[in-house]
Structure formats: C-alpha cells, structure tokens
Amino acid sequence: WQALVLGVKDYTRKCGFSKVVIGLSGGIDSSLVAAIATEALGSQQVLGVLMPSPYSSEHSVEDALDLANNLGISTQTLPIESVMNAFDSTLYNLFAGTQFGIAEENMQSRIRGTLLMAISNKFGHLLLSTGNKSEIAVGYCTLYGDMNGGLAVIADVPKTRVYSICKWLNENRGREIIPNNVLIKPASAELKPGQFDSDSLPPYHILDDILYRLIERHESVPTIIEAGHDCQTVERIVKLVMGAEFKRRQAPPGLKISDRAFGTGWRMPIARGKDI
Known about the structure:
By secondary structure, this protein is α/β, with parallel strands linked by helices.
C-alpha cells in the first residue's frame, strides 16, 4: 500500500500532473486504484468517471458511487449506449451475418478508453489505468481500451493481492473504504449479459499461484505441474502469457512492487512461434 501510494504521488508530480482521472466500474481494481490515488494526491485531485453500458448491473453503478462517497472524490457519469449504437450502425453492413463476440465486447472498452483520454486531454488530468497483474499477464485486457493511460498503478499487483490490500485497508482505517459489496461480488468485465471472469479464467487463487511460479520464480511447466496444478490448465495459462506479450509492449508504465514486474524485469520476444 505504501509503495503504491508513493509511486502514484511521485510519478504524478515528476511528470507535471496535479490531478488524475480514473474510470470507475464498480469493480475491485478501479476501487483500489481510486483509493490509492486519493491517499497519494488528496480527494480534490481525483475524478472518477462512470461509463455504464446496457450490460452494466445496477449494483455496479451503486458500488462506484458508494466508493466515491467513501473517498470524497467527485464523479461524472457518461452512459455509453448511444456511442455503442453509433458504432454498431457504422459497422452494420461489414459485420452482417456474424455473431456478437469479442469484437463487440472490446468496442465497449475502447469507447470508455477514448472518453477517458478525451477527459485527460481536455483538462490535463493523468489517466490512471486499473488493470491488475493477473489480467495483464494472460491478456485479459483490451488494447486501446482499459489499457489506456499514463500510469498502470496496480500492474504488478495480482488479483488475489488486490483483494487482500482492499480488505486490509478497510480494517486499517476502521471503516468501509472499499464497499463491502465490491469485495464479495464475483469479478466481471460486464461486457455481455451474465459474464464473469471465471468463464474465461481459472479461479484467481489458482491462476495467481501459476503466474507467481512462472513469472517470479522462473519455474518450468513440468515443475509447476508437479506442484499440484492441472496439466492442461498450466499449459493454457503459459500459452496465454506468451501470447499476450504484444499487448504488454503497448501498455502504460507500471509501478513495480514485486521481484519481477512486466516492463522492467520481464523481457520476452513478441513473436515466438508455436512453442510454449
């Protein structure tokens, strides 16, 4: 917590920014980033932007507003349904005969990323991206969407540690900073009806242990499997990690808190062929 707060405060000041903007989804990652930024810069220097889509749950908006109230930061709400419709209309003929899929899901993230960058450009705020290390490792993030920003605050914080820091923060402050509903609800990108992270990824405690062994301990696939992990799961995760290198090369710089962070302690070729 202290390292992340210091990192945001130091980076923002040295890069000539006084205020930051953050996309608030009502999820745990953006909640933690907003809390870190508020601690580092003060509540008056943080703007939270809510960008609900037709797939956003009611509780996500409520959770984001509860967080903002707990932190004392200002918010703006920019619904994106009309922008989504404009994109759908423009692409209608080209996409005719195809099924709703990743392209349409990612469009929502890219709309949000564009709006946040517009705010950053207009008002001179530093955009803080909110992706965690687990997502960035396996490519569960969208280029030119939620990866937009000038600083990736928790890019070296695995998802399980995001939860533990948030729980610690509430306990340390003796009150609810991170809304309890944010801590207990299933993680979801909410880019389609009924979507949960668990649809695409193993449970985070399994994923994070595999990633820790692979990234920080430099363990081989056989060694990770010998530690008790399912063979197919390990091979799939390693393949995802290697396949997402092109995304990480285009990500904003991130704060380093571990022995091996992406961008500083991780150097892998983008094009690797078919080898794991």
